Amino acid sequence: MHLLGYTAAAILMGASAAQAELNIRFVESAPKDRFEISWTGSCALAAGEIEIDLAPAPADLVFDTEEGGRGVEVYQPFEVAAGGELITNAPRVKDGAKQITLSHAKMQPGAAFVFTIDVDDAAGNRLGPIRVSGSEMAGTVVRTKTGSNAAFSDDNLAALSLGACS
Known about the structure:
This protein is mainly beta and about 170 residues long. Helices cover about 5% and strands about 35% of the residues.
């Protein structure tokens, strides 16, 4: 299944024989930005929660889900784009929010889900308020309920190492 459009190099960088990782990729796009979440472990990942926190990013990033508010021009609410059977509680994301928490079902090896939403730079840094570059997303933190966390890098990727599969 080639759901997420990862290149072979990106898969090899994110996967490890000993470690199991939850990979999150942010894709800037118009009119909807996209978050792609995939499980690269060789065992199943138990049901849980994933939080994406924009607050630590260097830019003033916000989820722009409604007309008006801190977002700019086009807005897009949270919408599942693929793998909806894995999302057990679709969140209601308030306009201008900096955090989103997703509840997911047990994920088998290679499982993935994708959601779209609009992310804006409310301060209008770098590329302007509508487009978010990798360096603006860098620092955004992804956390699991079990305490694992990772920050997005300049290439719009975050990889949470969740330990070895047994």
